[in-house]
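Quick one, tokens below:
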């Protein structure tokens, strides 16, 4: 929380402006006892170094304020803040996720997208190598970063991303314009779990990808997931594949993993769920798991299941 406040208050940006910075410059008019005490607290925590009354980021501070670290932090501090603020009500059944409490969709798509870029775009590209896909559909695409990165790498590729969150789709559209990819990508608000409602453009894909979205359905029970996998089997004709990516936890009290565990428990999203449990769900559906891809990554890593229709 303190690192987040350091960023949110603009202190980080001012600290980064030069090598050693005074508290007055960092706090920019807010140079009070509280502000100075806060900087000292960050020094004691090993985030800042101090020399002759001036500060800079320590090596640990540099790591904690990297783009990926801040995205992981934003995932909990922004996207899931409305959920963790109501934790008591959720565990005592005074509030229900989806009815009384919802996470922030725009922040979720942004932060997931930043993490996706480094942790699994390469892995998906590797999984698709040899297939020469022409059109991709990303279901639960968030801010579209996976599709945009794949299209930027592969000039012959085009695709559509769908997401239930309007804020996420607006982010994705803005990024596709920014990246000059609006002619090869499109983004629509649509339900990933209802293929019969997808637009023609979405349904025309030869490869489907869905990362971190399917586990949401365990809220309605395993049979609900199997029913959707069966519906997807109808879409996967003529050798089309579905790359389903889902986070794997190590089930121990490690940074990232344990918080990741908690926000999913509070929102009834069916995590933790290990690889064996996913394989069992596939076995009970009309989809067959052909291959599994994963890579080492900090925090919860994503495991990809390549699924085809039986
Ligand atoms: C954890 S984020 C992952 C986003 C993106 N795939 C990524 O890897 O960065 C899950 C996404 O699934 C979306 N989502 C949840 N339920 C959905 C549904 N029924 N249809 C479409 N999208 C859905 C959420 O809005 C959110 O953007």
């Amino acid at each position: 929380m303190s690192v987040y406040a350091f960023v949110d208050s603009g202190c980080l940006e001012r600290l980064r402006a030069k090598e050693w910075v005074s508290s007055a410059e960092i706090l920019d008019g807010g140079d009070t006892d509280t502000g100075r005490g806060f900087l000292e607290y960050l020094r004691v925590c090993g985030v800042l170094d101090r020399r002759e009354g001036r500060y800079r980021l320590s090596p640990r501070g540099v790591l904690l304020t990297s783009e990926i670290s801040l995205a992981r932090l934003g995932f909990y501090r922004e996207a899931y803040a409305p959920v963790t603020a109501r934790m008591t009500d959720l565990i005592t059944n005074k509030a229900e996720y989806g009815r009384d409490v919802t996470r922030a969709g725009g922040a979720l798509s942004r932060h997931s997208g930043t993490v996706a870029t480094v942790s699994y775009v390469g892995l998906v590209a590797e999984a698709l190598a040899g297939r020469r896909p022409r059109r991709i559909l990303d279901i639960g695409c968030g801010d579209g970063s996976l599709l945009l990165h794949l299209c930027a790498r592969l000039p012959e590729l085009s695709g559509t991303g769908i997401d239930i969150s309007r804020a996420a789709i607006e982010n994705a559209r803005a990024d596709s314009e920014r990246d000059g990819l609006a002619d090869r990508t499109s983004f629509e608000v649509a339900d990933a779990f209802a293929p019969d409602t997808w637009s023609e453009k979405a349904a025309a894909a030869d490869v489907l990808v869905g990362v971190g979205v399917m586990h949401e359905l365990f809220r309605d029970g395993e049979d609900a997931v199997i029913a959707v996998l069966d519906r997807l089997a109808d879409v996967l004709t003529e050798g089309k594949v579905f790359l389903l990516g889902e986070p794997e936890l190590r089930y121990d009290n490690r940074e990232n993993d344990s918080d990741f565990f908690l926000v999913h428990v509070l929102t009834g999203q069916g995590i933790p769920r290990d690889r064996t449990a996913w394989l069992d769900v596939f076995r009970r559906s009309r989809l067959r798991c052909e291959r599994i891809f994963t890579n080492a990554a900090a925090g919860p890593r994503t495991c990809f299941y390549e699924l085809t229709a039986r």
